[in-house]
Amino acid sequence: MEYQLVERISPDRLDSCLNSLAERINRDYSGKSLVLIGVLKGAFIFMADLARRLSIPVQMDFVRLASYGEKSETCGSVQITKDIELSVKGRHVLVVEDIVDTGITINFYLEHLKTHCPESVRVCALIDKSERRRVEVAVDYVGLSMDGFLVGYGLDFSEKHRNLPAIYEVIFENAAPEKKTLQEENDSCQCS
Ligand code: PRP
Known about the structure:
The chain has helices spanning 11-28, 44-51, 104-114, 179-182, and strands at residues 3-9, 34-40, 58-68, 77-82, 92-100, 120-128, 141-145, 150-151, 167-172, 188-189. By secondary structure, it is an alpha/beta fold. A seven-stranded mixed β-sheet has the order 4-3-2-5-6-7-10. The chain is globular. The model is unreliable at 180-186 (pLDDT under 50). The structure holds 1-O-pyrophosphono-5-O-phosphono-alpha-D-ribofuranose (PRP).
């Protein structure tokens, strides 16, 4: 399948977006400690860069969630294939996602987390595709609100391109690009 990658979010823009997110989180959790839970695989780069900007005490863990259904969209069936190893009982937890799309994956995991009795749970997503939501989910910290088939900075297309330092849109050849998804000026960075 032939496709091109078109840069949507530059490394500089990611940098300032993460600075703003970290500033808010440092302020909101001032005087507290936090457990960051990264959702594998997509969140691994975002969480690593976010964690290095946090000045509050943090512990880190990861969960791997597998969803089943069409490749392009999560369906209702989500399973935990690797759970966290830290105890979050009585702790403040921040779940770190690369993308919240339909909301099905994070909604499932938030329900599961309740059984671990944390003191509080919030969600931080680098990208929020809120227009595609199928279940209601509160995303407390949003880096970017944008749509399109995105890769880079942890996001993949068939496991490729996760290592790219910017965020790109996948444009398939012979497919008419949607006007909306090609206009970076329409993307709203929530954190600047
Ligand atoms: C992506 C993303 C979220 C989920 C969001 O994971 O990292 O976990 O999909 O989709 P939803 O809101 O529609 O449920 P993916 O299954 O692509 O796995 P990956 O993180 O390993 O790339």
